[in-house]
TrEMBL record:
InterPro entries: Enolase-ppase_E1 (IPR023943), HAD-like_sf (IPR036412), HAD-SF_hydro_IA (IPR006439), HAD_sf (IPR023214). Belongs to the HAD-like hydrolase superfamily. MasA/MtnC family. It comes from the Bacteria. Its EC number is 3.1.3.77. Keywords: Amino-acid biosynthesis, Hydrolase, Magnesium, Metal-binding, Methionine biosynthesis. Binds 1 Mg(2+) ion per subunit. One of its GO terms (molecular function) is 2-hydroxy-3-keto-5-methylthiopentenyl-1-phosphate phosphatase activity. This is Enolase-phosphatase E1. Pathway: Amino-acid biosynthesis; L-methionine biosynthesis via salvage pathway; L-methionine from S-methyl-5-thio-alpha-D-ribose 1-phosphate: step 4/6; Amino-acid biosynthesis; L-methionine biosynthesis via salvage pathway; L-methionine from S-methyl-5-thio-alpha-D-ribose 1-phosphate: step 3/6. GO terms for biological process: L-methionine salvage from methylthioadenosine. It is an enzyme of class 3 (hydrolase).
Length: 226
């Protein structure tokens, strides 16, 4: 029985174009100054991590390359999250979620399902994103937030850890994502899965997993509260 829905963000609840064309350019503009901030311990730690993975390289250049490739690197995600805070708090950024998302999340939550986020975006940026959406503050709908500090999204062990942290058996969790390798990892850990194949994101359907074009179809396919 499904007790918790675990949701990816980019390509699942939020168009990839919003991340690529709005959030990344905002972070790219703020990064050169941020990365020189030697007083912020999170920045110092992120720079130290970059120095370990890319010794002798310019940390700004490393981050810019990661962003160009949409690489899910933890130090980049930490730094981007710091830049986005100002944008969300001053109203420059507002998450334009897929329109089917807020009503479905509310119906699932009101119907007794627990909701949690698992995204490569840092936990502070997940909370900002759901705190400042075009449809208002949705953070109270979620009782768990997980990011790369739990482990990579293509690693089955991460999903085992999330199930344990939520106090649930893996089979009681439904994981929603657009990325086939993430779904395969969750499936390997024993979770139920469904791929969001959003036409706007031109997602390629992945073999061996159920598909849905939006959360309404997920509701129907898995008999979730409507
Ligand atoms: C608060 S998430 C911002 C988008 C982002 O940076 C990202 O990497 C999303 O990746 P996901 O795992 O949600 O596909
Ligand atoms: Mg995604």
């Amino acid at each position: 029985m499904i007790r918790l829905v675990l949701l990816d963000i980019e390509g699942t609840t939020l168009p990839i174009s919003f991340v690529r064309d709005v959030m990344f350019p905002y972070a790219a503009k703020a990064l050169p100054a941020l990365i020189e901030d030697h007083t912020n311990p999170q920045v110092v730690a992120a720079r130290a991590d970059i120095a370990i993975s890319h010794p002798g390289e310019d940390p700004l250049k490393v981050c810019q390359d990661w962003m160009a490739k949409d690489e899910k690197a933890a130090p980049l995600k930490t730094l981007q999250g710091i830049t986005w805070r100002q944008g969300f708090e001053d109203g420059t950024l507002r998450a334009d979620l897929y329109k089917d998302v807020p009503p479905a999340l509310k119906a699932w939550s009101e119907g007794g399902l627990r909701l949690a986020v698992y995204s490569s975006g840092s936990i502070p940026s997940q909370k900002l994103l759901y705190g400042y959406t075009e449809q208002g503050d949705l953070t109270s709908l979620f009782d768990g937030f997980f990011d790369l500090s739990t482990g990579g999204k293509k690693d089955a062990a991460s999903y085992t850890k999330i199930a344990a942290a939520c106090g649930l058996k893996p089979e009681d969790i439904l994981f929603l994502s657009d990325i086939g390798a993430e779904l395969d990892a969750a499936l390997e850990a024993g979770l139920k899965v469904c791929q969001l194949v959003r036409p706007q994101d031109q997602t390629v359907p992945h073999e061996g997993v159920p598909h849905a074009t939006d959360l309404n179809e997920v509701t129907q396919k898995f008999s979730l509260p409507a």
